[in-house]
Amino acid sequence: MKNAFYQVEMGDFFVSSGMLNHLNILHGGVLLKHCDSTVGVLANRYSQSRVLTVAIKNFNFACPAHVGDHIWFRVTLLKTGHHSMTFAVSIFSQGFEDSTATKIGEGLMVFVAVSEKLRPVLVKPYVVTDAEQQTKLNELMSKFDV
């Protein structure tokens, strides 16, 4: 896979009233659920197998989101192990009348590729050949202490 999964924006949704917490902002658990599903799709595409979330690390909520806000995820594959894939995810929000997006959260997620019997399967190595992309990956890996 030559850089095909370096970084993608995917998994967008609009905040609805049923997603709010008692403070009338997007519930963190709802956001994390959408994030987990979105990153899981990319992990599945990369590994061509079933995947399970094994770790959610360094997840930070920076700003609230409100009803009507458009939420999307920027997902970056940082590295692979024998059975695992480590992703950085940035979460963005844009209000209906806003022209710019705001980063509302970020985190690190680790998935493992598994068989139908939920046994680990091998993941092909992720090799970045583009120097600019490698620099960006190194910055993210340093930020998340990967």
UniProtKB/TrEMBL annotation:
<feature type="domain" description="HotDog ACOT-type">
    <location>
        <begin position="4"/>
        <end position="117"/>
    </location>
</feature>
<dbReference type="GO" id="GO:0006637">
    <property type="term" value="P:acyl-CoA metabolic process"/>
</dbReference>
<comment type="similarity">
    <text>Belongs to the acyl coenzyme A hydrolase family.</text>
</comment>
<dbReference type="InterPro" id="IPR040170">
    <property type="entry name" value="Cytosol_ACT"/>
</dbReference>
<dbReference type="GO" id="GO:0005737">
    <property type="term" value="C:cytoplasm"/>
</dbReference>
<protein>
    <recommendedName>
        <fullName>HotDog ACOT-type domain-containing protein</fullName>
    </recommendedName>
</protein>
<dbReference type="InterPro" id="IPR029069">
    <property type="entry name" value="HotDog_dom_sf"/>
</dbReference>
<keyword id="KW-0378">Hydrolase</keyword>
<dbReference type="Pfam" id="PF03061">
    <property type="entry name" value="4HBT"/>
</dbReference>
<dbReference type="InterPro" id="IPR033120">
    <property type="entry name" value="HOTDOG_ACOT"/>
</dbReference>
<dbReference type="GO" id="GO:0052816">
    <property type="term" value="F:long-chain fatty acyl-CoA hydrolase activity"/>
</dbReference>
<dbReference type="InterPro" id="IPR006683">
    <property type="entry name" value="Thioestr_dom"/>
</dbReference>
